[in-house]
Write a structure and sequence with these properties.
Layout: H1 16-46, H2 51-62, H3 64-67, H4 69-76, H5 81-104, H6 110-138, H7 144-173, H8 175-178, H9 180-193, H10 211-223, H11 226-255, H12 261-289, H13 291-302, H14 308-311, H15 317-346, H16 352-364, H17 366-381, H18 383-395, H19 399-402
Helix pairs in contact: 1-6, 1-7, 1-9, 1-12, 2-6, 2-11, 2-17, 4-6, 4-10, 4-16, 5-6, 5-9, 6-16, 7-12, 7-15, 10-16, 11-16, 11-17, 11-18, 12-13, 12-15, 13-15, 17-18
């Protein structure tokens, strides 16, 4: 019998490098949420874009997941992740910064918006896949749920503060100038990430191995695992119909509900409260219900609130829209924390980039299709009809999960130890558990 006491476990925030990673996420997400309000308003108000043109803009933002999603993972498994994160932030800063510059010269066009959306989308593919693959370098496996919960808390907090700030800036300065905040956020993020000093070993490249073989190995890992397959199917369905919402919501708010930019910012901020609540509750819910059950229960319970979106009308329309957003986003974030942490724990470290990229290709690859669908339906039958399509689609998200082995699982199977940082004590440990940590110790806007 081993009488040696277990080493104290610390919160992820006790690690300096994780704090820098999180601070970078704060800066980047704050700017991104301003652009969430400003960019579609540039198209709708400044350039008088049609619903289909706005849908095309949303499709351009997400098309990169179809274009480079799979090879991105194979490339990233051959290189260190931190330099990729920094370069992606710098590229996104330059791309979005070109919008206010062009507006100041009275030279801004829809074509430029499409190009900026495409470039930032490609950079975001590499950033997001590298970010999910880099987190296990900074944290041991038993801290991944807590770490992902902290990341989602930051994301959700930015989604509360950012849109309100964005709406105010658009009201005060105009939509193009408000986008400067996004460029600054990416620049600050890159500066913070450059201060991380974690030892990240260079991946070992197998001599003579082709990129195609690497991609195929990642695809086989995801499609060959029964739980990953159904998670991919459910998330792809969610993202398909979330993209319908993304494509038409600004047109609906401006031309149907008659909301001002400031009111739109407030609406998005209020809706984002659900995401913050989901990030804070994901750990305790996983402890009480079980991580396996939580994956299918979260979308099953919260999905029906999406029906409030097409029902929104008149003076109460913004309130109904916000209530639906709070509930659906709560479920999406709880689902994200549970399934992303499972994926990171399950996957061998040498496959993390390809696993995450394959998942992103499968689940984010539906975003441009959903955006085009939303724009086409809104052009033909109006934005409210597109919102009905979105709501009905969200109801279908838990179906593949309920038909899978997940329905009978309380907890999920553990994967191999990914050899992250040591699991022992750190200097000056903080024994206070993370709020997102399901057991006080052991612990994807569209769904990731």
């Amino acid at each position: 019998m081993n009488d040696k006491p277990s080493p104290p476990r610390t919160r992820p925030s006790a690690r300096r490098d994780f704090r820098l990673l999180l601070s970078g996420a704060v800066a980047a997400q704050a700017g991104t949420q301003v652009t969430l309000v400003a960019l579609p308003l540039v198209a709708v108000v400044e350039l008088d874009a049609s619903p289909f043109q706005v849908g095309l803009l949303t499709a351009a933002e997400t098309a990169a997941f179809l274009l480079v999603g799979l090879p991105a993972g194979a490339w990233l498994d051959r290189m260190r992740k931190l330099p990729v994160l920094i370069r992606a932030d710098v590229l996104r800063c330059l791309a979005v910064g070109s919008i206010p510059a062009a507006a100041a010269l009275d030279a801004l066009t829809l074509v430029q918006l499409y190009l900026v959306a495409l470039v930032t989308g490609v950079a975001t593919v590499f950033f997001d896949v590298a970010h999910q693959s880099y987190l296990p370098v900074l944290l041991p496996r038993e801290r991944l749920v807590a770490g992902n919960g902290a990341v989602e808390t930051v994301r959700s907090s930015a989604q509360i503060a950012g849109p309100g700030l964005g709406g105010g800036l658009v009201q005060l300065l105009g939509a193009p100038l408000a986008i400067v905040a996004d460029a600054v956020g990416y620049l600050v993020s890159a500066a913070l990430l450059s201060r991380i000093r974690a030892d990240e070993p260079r991946p070992h490249a197998e001599p003579g191995r082709s990129l195609r073989a690497d991609i195929a190995e990642g695809v086989r890992f995801v499609t060959g695992h029964p739980l990953l397959r159904v998670i991919a199917a459910a998330t792809a369905t969610s993202n398909l119909f979330s993209a319908v919402l993304m494509a038409v919501q600004t047109v609906f708010w401006v031309r149907v509900l008659g909301l001002s930019p400031a009111a739109i910012g407030v609406l998005l901020s209020v809706s984002a409260v659900g995401g913050l609540a989901g990030a804070l509750c994901a750990g305790p819910l996983a402890r009480r219900i079980g991580q396996g059950r939580l994956i299918w229960l979260a979308p099953l319970v919260t999905g029906p609130f999406a029906l409030l979106w097409p029902l929104a009308d008149g003076r109460a329309g913004a309130v109904l829209f916000a209530v639906g957003g709070v509930a659906v986003l709560f479920g999406a974030v709880v689902y994200n924390v549970a399934q992303v942490s499972f994926r990171q724990s399950l996957c061998p470290p040498e496959l993390l980039g390809r696993m995450n990229a394959t998942m992103r290709f499968l689940v984010w690859g539906t975003l441009p299709l959903g955006a085009l669908l939303g724009g086409a339906v809104a052009d033909a039958a109006g934005p409210r009809a597109a919102l009905w399509v979105c709501a009905v689609g969200i109801l279908a998200v838990p179906v593949p999960l309920l038909l899978s082995p997940l329905r009978g699982m309380r907890d999920l199977p553990a994967g191999p130890d990914h050899g992250g940082p040591d699991h022992g004590p750190e200097p000056e440990p903080d024994s206070e558990p993370d709020r997102a940590d399901p057991e006080g110790a052991d612990a994807v806007r569209p769904v990731r």
